[in-house]
C-alpha cells in the first residue's frame, strides 16, 4: 500500500484487523517517515523481545488472566509481523508467505483431518505419526542426526527435555524412573565433591549435569519442568511477599530482620496457604 490517504485510513481503522497491523509495521519501518528506534532494529535485536513476549503469554495463561491474554497474544503476533517486515525488506519473504508456510505444514502434518487417513486412531498413534512427518521434514533439510534441529536458542531447560526426548526415541533412555533418581543422587554427590575439592568451572559443569538429570526426571514423571519451575517461582514470590507484609505490620523491613524470624514467618505463610486450601 503506497497511497497515503488509503494507508492512513487503514492505520486508523479500529476494525482493520491483521492488514492494519501489517501496514502499521510497514509505516514504522519506512526509511523516510518511520520510527527511528524501529528502523535501527534487526533480527538479532528483536529476538529477545520475541522470547519475552512468548513468556508473557505463558504467564497470563498460568495466572488464568484471560483479560490480559488477548493483549499478550497481540504483542507476540506483532513480533511475527516485525520479523516478517524485516525479511520482506531484504527480499526474503513476507508475512503472507509465513502464513502460507504454516498452513502448508499443518495440512501436511494432519492427513487424518485434511487428507485421506482415518481419524480413528489414538492420540499416541497421532503423536507417533506427527514425529514421523517431522523426521521426514528434517531429513529433507539434511538433518540426519538424532539431535539435529533442536534449536540452540531454546531456554536451556526446555532444550534439555527436547534433547532427551529425541534420544529416547532411538532407545537411549532409562527404562525406570528409579534409575533416574539414582543418577540424580550420583550427580549430587559429584557436585558436592566438586565444591569441596575442585574449581568453579568444575562446579558449573557438575551443576549443569545435575540440572540436566532433573529435567530428565521431570520427563519420566510426566511433569513439564518449565511449568513446574514457574509454579515454584510463583509460590516463592507469594510466600516471601507474605513475609514482607508480616514484617511491615511490625513496622520493619527484611533488612531489619534476621533469617530465624523470616523463616518462622515463612512457615506461618506456608501453613496459612495449606489451611486455606
TrEMBL record:
Reactions the enzyme catalyzes: ATP + H2O = AMP + diphosphate + H(+)
Domain NTP pyrophosphohydrolase MazG-like: 41-114, 181-241
EC code: 3.6.1.8
Iron as UniProt keyword: no
One GO molecular-function entry: ATP diphosphatase activity
InterPro entries, per the entry: MazG-like_dom, NTP-PPase_MazG-like_C, NTP-PPase_MazG-like_N, NTP_PyrPHydrolase_MazG
Enzyme class per UniProt: hydrolase
Pfam family membership, one: MazG
Keyword Cell division: no
One Gene Ontology biological process: dTTP catabolic process
UniProt KW keywords: Hydrolase
UniProt record similarity statement: Belongs to the nucleoside triphosphate pyrophosphohydrolase family.
Name recorded for this polypeptide: Nucleoside triphosphate pyrophosphohydrolase
Species per Swiss-Prot/TrEMBL record: Histidinibacterium aquaticum
Gene: mazG
Amino acid at each position: 500500500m503506497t497511497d497515503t490517504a488509503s494507508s492512513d485510513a487503514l492505520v486508523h481503522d479500529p476494525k482493520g484487523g491483521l492488514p492494519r497491523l501489517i501496514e502499521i509495521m510497514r509505516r514504522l519501518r519506512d526509511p523516510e517517515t518511520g520510527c527511528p528506534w524501529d528502523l535501527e532494529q534487526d533480527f538479532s535485536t528483536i529476538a529477545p523481545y520475541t522470547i519475552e513476549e512468548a513468556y508473557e503469554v505463558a504467564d497470563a495463561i498460568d495466572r488464568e488472566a484471560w483479560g490480559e491474554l488477548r493483549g499478550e497474544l497481540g504483542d507476540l503476533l506483532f513480533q511475527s509481523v516485525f520479523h516478517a517486515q524485516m525479511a520482506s525488506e531484504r527480499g526474503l519473504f513476507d508475512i503472507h508467505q509465513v502464513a502460507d508456510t504454516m498452513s502448508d505444514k499443518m495440512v501436511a502434518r494432519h492427513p487424518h483431518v485434511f487428507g485421506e487417513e482415518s481419524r480413528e486412531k489414538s492420540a499416541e498413534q497421532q503423536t507417533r505419526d506427527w514425529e514421523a512427518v517431522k523426521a521426514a521434514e528434517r531429513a529433507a533439510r539434511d538433518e540426519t542426526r538424532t539431535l539435529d534441529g533442536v534449536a540452540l536458542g531454546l531456554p536451556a531447560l526446555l532444550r534439555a527435555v527436547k534433547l532427551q526426548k529425541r534420544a529416547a526415541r532411538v532407545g537411549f533412555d532409562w527404562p525406570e524412573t528409579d534409575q533416574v533418581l539414582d543418577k540424580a543422587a550420583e550427580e549430587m554427590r559429584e557436585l558436592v565433591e566438586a565444591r569441596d575439592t575442585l574449581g568453579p568451572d568444575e562446579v558449573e559443569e557438575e551443576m549443569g549435569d545435575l540440572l540436566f538429570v532433573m529435567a530428565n526426571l521431570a520427563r519420566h514423571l510426566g511433569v513439564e519442568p518449565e511449568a513446574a519451575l514457574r509454579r515454584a517461582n510463583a509460590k516463592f514470590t507469594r510466600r516471601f511477599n507474605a513475609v514482607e507484609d508480616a514484617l511491615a505490620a511490625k513496622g520493619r523491613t527484611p533488612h531489619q530482620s534476621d533469617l530465624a524470624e523470616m523463616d518462622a514467618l515463612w512457615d506461618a505463610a506456608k501453613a496459612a496457604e495449606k489451611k486455606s486450601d
